[in-house]
Amino acid sequence: MHMVWQKTKEKLQSELSESVFNLWIEPLQCLSEQKNTISLACPDRFFSAYISRNYLDTIQKTLKEVDPQQREVVLALGKQEKQEESRGKTTQLRLPNMEIKKSSVRALHPRYTFDRFMIGESNILAQSACRSISMADDSVGPCLYINSTTGLGKSHLTHAVAHHILVDSPATRLHYLTAQQFSSEMVKSIRANTMDAFKQKYHDHCDILLVEDVHSLTGKKKTQEELNELLDSLIKCGKRVVFTANKSPRELAGIDEEFRSRMTSGLVTAIQPPDLSTRTRIVKNKAMLHSISLEDEHADYLAHHIKGDVRQIESAIVSIRAKAQLNEGTLDMQTIEQVVASIVGNPQMLSAAMIREFICKQYKLSCSELQSRSRKRVLTFPRQVAMYLCRMHTEQSLSDIGKEFNRDHSTVLHSIKVVDGLSKRNIGVEEQISLLSKKLDTL
Fold it and tell me: CA–CA separation, 173 vs 101, rounded Å?
């Protein structure tokens, strides 16, 4: 009998909350009590990592109070876990000593997985955070809040988290639903006088909670109170929570301040509309998934003119596939233009002249100055940037771009190489080009 550890556990039980003790202390098994060490077995490596981060100091301190002899607490894996790892199996992420309950999830889109998510500057933080959540990495904090306008990937990422956990750690109790569904379930439980079962489901049998569309809780005070209580309980027990909404937390109207504060206790990140290069990759990826062979000029046209809602790109690809089937697999630019017009209207085509005027306004120059033969730095750099952006945002030839600046095609080509090189070496130039490009996308 390991008396020192038994007394330490008794003392910890009196000092810690019942839920914390039952979840994180009770499952620890004492393997040995040596003169200088006490070895404790953890159910799995995730459990061991959590104990190390959150309770090892408390255990060490309590142990010293029970037995003044200086001993080091060593965390080890249980026998079963060692066997699993030696066979190369992935361990299931489960909290110990908990009755196995089934997960409850919405119908998951089969293609909304991490490997199908197109990463760009606009969404890389949200994607990285969701991957961390799905792998039980608490680097983002206890709660992740993602906001964006419709069609930018919030649902794709939450579905991806659910897919990853259900495949990689199937014993994890995962509840995935919309805020409206949570509210409806709560109301039904109140009417049926089954709130105890409702609370037990979410408080006691949930390892990760995904709630979409929190903005729909505006004015629903009772649901907010229930979710706030649940969030507090899950966070204290080391569980993971993901919320999504169409606005940032501070922009949500009719939301209790305590609930708002708790939702922002971890990482808050927004997904912005994808930039041109990301949209181009999305277009090509979706075309490939639908077995459509798109010419580069067709993909570029779609990426240039369908901005913001990524679902519109999906809609365009589906429409293009249907038209291609009617035309025996052939596609031309006229067909692409018709599809784009049906989705976003007739787009205003950016031209070299428009970009030249735009750059003049941004750098406070006149058109004649930009077209002059002057080689002053204050003129050459904006001129080179303008030519670079013309090449990026228009389909015009190098010669046609050059005419707008009184230059030939070789000068345009040289300018493009100069700006491209500066962008790779100088982060300030890279950010400047990125900002100008984003502004052009909104014209």
Answer: 6
Threshold 0.70, pTM exceeds: no
**Does 143 lie in the same domain as 170?**
yes
DSSP codes of every residue in 292-308: ----HHHHHHHHHH--S
Domain final residue, candidates 250, 270, 290: 270
Contacts for 399 with CB less than 8 Å, ≥ 6 apart: 408, 409, 412
Report yes or no: 305 and 313 within 8 Å, Cβ to Cβ.
Answer: no
pLDDT at 78: 61
**Based on the domain organization, do 406 and 265 belong to the same domain?**
no
Q: What is the pLDDT of residue 242?
A: 95
260 and 120 in a single domain? The answer is yes
The single-letter code of the amino acid at 425 is: R
The answer to whether residues 138 and 177 belong to one domain is yes
96 lies in a domain? no
Name which of 57, 71, 54, 49 is nearest 5 in CA terms.
Answer: 71
> Quick check: helix, strand or coil at residue 284?
helix
Domain of 127? 114-270
Q: Tell me what pLDDT residue 385 has.
A: 95
58 with 162, same domain: the answer is no
Whether 130 and 229 share a structural domain = yes
- Judge if 201 and 157 occupy the same domain: yes
Do residues 82 and 190 share a domain? no
Low-confidence ranges of the chain (pLDDT < 70): 1, 19, 44-46, 70, 78-102, 106, 346-349, 443
| CA distance to 5, 182, 266, per residue, from 140 (Å) | 33, 24, 6
Q: Quick one: pLDDT at residue 436? A: 92
Instruction: Please state, in angstroms and rounded to a whole number, the distance separating the CA atoms of residues 157 and 140.
Output: 15
The pairing of beta strand 37-42 with beta strand 29-33:
antiparallel
Helix (H) or strand (E) holding 82: helix 79-86
Q: Whole-angstrom Cα distance, residue 310 to residue 298?
A: 17
The H-or-E segment that residue 75 falls in is strand 72-77
